[in-house]
Structures are given as C-alpha cells and as structure tokens.
From TrEMBL:
Top-level taxon of origin: Bacteria
Record's protein name: Putative membrane protein
Transmembrane segments: 7-29, 41-64, 76-96, 124-149, 169-188
Taxonomic source organism: Pedobacter hartonius
Pfam families (alphabetical): DUF420 (PF04238)
Keyword Transmembrane: yes
Length: 190
C-alpha cells in the first residue's frame, strides 16, 4: 500500500463517518417549518434510482463476466454517480420529512389497532427488509469506495477481493431499496 492509498483510505473512512453522522442527525433534528414543493417528488426519484442501479449492477456483472472491461467500468461509474445522487436526494428529503410509518393509512402519525390489523404480518416483513437494508447500506459505502479506488488504480486482484463482498451487498441494498419504496409509498402523506 502506497502513500496515495493510505490517503484515499483515510478519506473514504472520513466520508463514511460524515455520511453516517448526517443521517443520524437527520433522525434527531426536527424538520424546518416550511418545505419546498419539490420535496415530495424525491421519494419517487429515490425509488427509481435504486431500480436503475439494480439493473446497472446486474449489467456490470454480465459485462465483467464477458471480459468487457470498458463497459463494466462505464456501467459502474454511472451506477456510482446515481448512488451519490440517491444519497443527496435521501438527505434532502429527510431534512424536510421524517420517517413515514408503515401501515399509517390515515396519515395521522399514529397506528391504530385497525391499521395494525389491516397490514398484519406485512409490517414485520417490511421491518426485516428495512433493517437489513439500512444495516447493509451503512456497510456498503466504504466497500464501494474502496472497490472504486482499487479498480481505478488497476489493483485488479485487490479489487476482486473487495468486490466479492461489495457487489452482493450493493445489489442487495439497491434491490431492497426498491422493495422498501414500493411497500412504504402507499403510506406517504402527500
């Protein structure tokens, strides 16, 4: 590992820590009183970005299996840019809107017994998917950044070693992001 690698690895961990702190702070800090009108389109964009990233990640795997390295690189760069855009939209949305409660049919922020009965076991399924999605989303950011560092610096063997972990986690996070979106969208209060 050279000096450049050490610098970028430190930078990766700093970026990861900053993103984690920002997301935690968004959960604690109350939203501003006024909201921009575009804010309500963001969850739909976020869901769409996750869907596109899921497809692009699968294409990336197909390209590398076929030894089409250029298409693999381009696809991953596009996926990376979209994922960064996702993160910006996610932070922006959660700055203004707090979490939506799964099953809150009347959008009052309180789950009644009738609402809980109506959603039944799907609420537990939602939370299992959501919790694994969130936990792995935290883990995947440094894995993605390290795999990009190694891929672009042509450290192919080291890139392969990290991608063995990063790829399935990134794909899982992207796919479950779509599932979470589809499950929660009926309960948005807009």
């Amino acid at each position: 590992m050279n000096l450049n690698d050490k610098f970028f690895l430190r930078l990766i961990w700093i970026v990861t820590a900053i993103v984690l702190v920002v997301v935690i702070v968004l959960k604690i800090v109350p939203p501003p009183a006024t909201k921009p009108s575009f804010i309500y389109i963001l969850p739909h964009l976020i869901g769409g970005i996750n869907a596109v990233c899921s497809v692009l990640l699968i294409l990336s795997l197909i390209f590398i299996k076929r030894k089409n390295i250029q298409a693999h690189k381009i696809t991953n760069v596009i996926t990376f840019i979209l994922s960064a855009l996702f993160l910006v939209f996610y932070i922006l949305f959660h700055l203004y809107e707090k979490d939506t409660r799964y099953g809150d049919i009347d959008h009052n922020g309180i789950l009644s017994a009738a609402e809980l009965a109506r959603v039944g076991a799907s609420r537990m399924i939602y939370f299992v998917i959501l919790i694994t999605h969130i936990m792995l989303a935290v883990i995947v950011l440094p894995l993605i950044l390290i795999s990009f560092l190694r891929g672009f610096s042509m450290q192919i063997e080291r890139h392969r070693k990290i991608v063995r972990w990063a790829y399935p986690v990134w794909l899982y996070v992207a796919v479950t992001g779509v599932i979470v979106y589809l499950m929660i969208v009926p309960y948005y209060n807009f």
